[in-house]
Specification:
Elements lengths: L5 E2 L1 H6 L6 E5 L9 H8 L5 E3 L22 H9 L8 E5 L6 H11 L5 E4 L2 H7 L26 E2 L1 H6 L7 E4 L3 H5 L16 E2 L15 H10 L7 E4 L6 H10 L6 E3 L2 H5 L12
Parallel strand pairs: 1-5, 2-3, 2-4, 4-5, 6-10, 7-8, 7-9, 9-10
Helix pairs in contact: 4-9
C-alpha cells in the first residue's frame, strides 16, 4: 500500500525498517533559516535525511521570481536519488507539525512525477507524543537511487495566467496567508502589502485540527464545497508558494483533484509594480 497524502505516526513507525522507505526532515523557520538543521542535528526520526527548504526545496532567486522559486526538476530528482529514492520508494516528509514545509516537499515530489509521497500527520510533534524513537545520528543512504523525472507542468500556473484570469469565473484564487497579511494590515516579509485582486483568503492553518493533524477528508471536502471552491478552477497561492502546498494537499486529501499552484505567489506578483494590488478584506 502506498501513502499519497498523509501517513500516521503509527503507520510510519510500523514501516521504519522498510528498505523502500525514504524519510525527509523538512523542519524550518522563515525567521531563522538555520533552525531546521539545528533541530535535525539535535533529534530526528531514525533514517531521516535533512531537506533544506531554502536550498533543496527551492531554486535560484532572481529578484523577480519570488522568495521560493521552484528548483530545477532534475536537480531535485538528483537530491532524492542521492538519498536512495527509487521509482518504487515510499517517501515520507515531516516538519514540526501543522506547518507548511512537509507539504512543500510533498508537492515538489508529485510535480516531478513521484506520487508515493506523504506527509507525517501531526509532524515531529506527533511522533514525539507517542514516544517513538529518535536519534541525533545523521543518516547515510545504503545506495544511490534511480528515481526518474516525469514532470507534471499542469500542476502549476504562472503570473501571466493569473493576470489573464483576474476576476474571471475560470479561476478561483485561494490565498493561504493569514488574514492580516491578506488585508494589507501588516506585511512582515514582502515589499508590498495586500493581495492579488479577486483572491479569497483561507489561511493554511485552517486545514489542520487543534492537535496539528490534518482534518479528515470528509471535513475538508465539506469545507471546500461549502465555500464554493471547484478544484478544476482553483489556484492556490500564498507568499512564496510554500503554504499554498498545504491547501493543495488538503484538496487532494479530500478527493478534490485538479487544483493548481501559482508558485511565485505574492512575492513574485509584487516584484512587478505594473501588476494590480488590492487591500482590505
Amino acid at each position: 500500500m502506498s501513502f499519497t497524502t498523509i501517513v500516521t505516526a503509527e503507520q510510519l513507525h510500523e514501516r521504519l525498517n522498510d528498505r523502500n522507505l525514504v524519510i525527509f526532515d523538512c523542519r524550518h523557520s522563515l525567521a531563522d533559516f538555520s533552525l531546521g538543521r539545528h533541530l535535525y542535528d539535535e533529534s530526528h526520526i531514525p533514517g531521516a535525511f535533512f531537506a533544506d527548504v531554502e536550498s533543496d526545496l527551492a531554486g535560484t532567486k532572481t529578484g523577480a521570481n519570488g522568495r521560493h522559486p521552484l528548483p530545477d526538476p532534475e536537480s531535485f530528482a538528483r537530491f532524492l536519488r542521492a538519498r536512495g529514492a527509487n521509482d518504487d520508494s515510499q517517501i515520507v516528509a515531516y516538519d514540526g507539525g501543522a506547518d507548511m514545509f512537509a507539504a512543500r516537499f510533498w508537492f515538489l515530489s508529485r510535480w516531478i512525477g513521484h506520487d508515493a509521497v506523504a506527509i507525517l500527520d501531526g509532524g515531529f510533534a506527533a511522533w514525539n507524543e507517542r514516544g517513538f524513537p529518535v536519534t541525533a545520528a545523521p543518516h547515510r543512504p545504503a545506495r544511490e537511487g534511480s528515481l526518474a523525472v516525469r514532470l507534471h507542468p499542469e500542476y502549476l500556473v504562472d503570473a501571466r495566467y493569473v493576470l489573464d484570469h483576474l476576476r474571471s469565473p475560470d479561476m478561483q484564487l485561494i490565498d493561504a496567508r493569514a488574514k492580516e497579511r491578506f488585508s494589507g494590515e501588516t506585511e512582515p516579509i514582502d515589499r508590498v502589502a495586500g493581495h492579488i485582486p479577486g483572491a479569497r483568503q483561507r489561511w493554511f492553518k485552517e486545514n489542520f485540527r487543534p492537535d496539528g493533524t490534518l482534518k479528515s477528508s470528509e471535513e475538508l471536502r465539506a469545507e471546500f464545497e461549502r465555500e464554493g471552491f471547484d478544484p478544476a478552477r482553483t489556484v492556490h497561492q500564498c507568499g512564496s508558494g510554500v503554504s499554498a502546498a498545504v491547501a493543495h494537499l488538503a484538496m487532494q486529501h479530500a478527493g478534490l483533484v485538479g487544483s493548481r499552484i501559482y508558485n511565485g505567489s505574492w512575492s513574485e506578483w509584487v516584484a512587478d509594480p505594473s501588476r494590480p494590488v488590492e487591500t482590505g478584506e
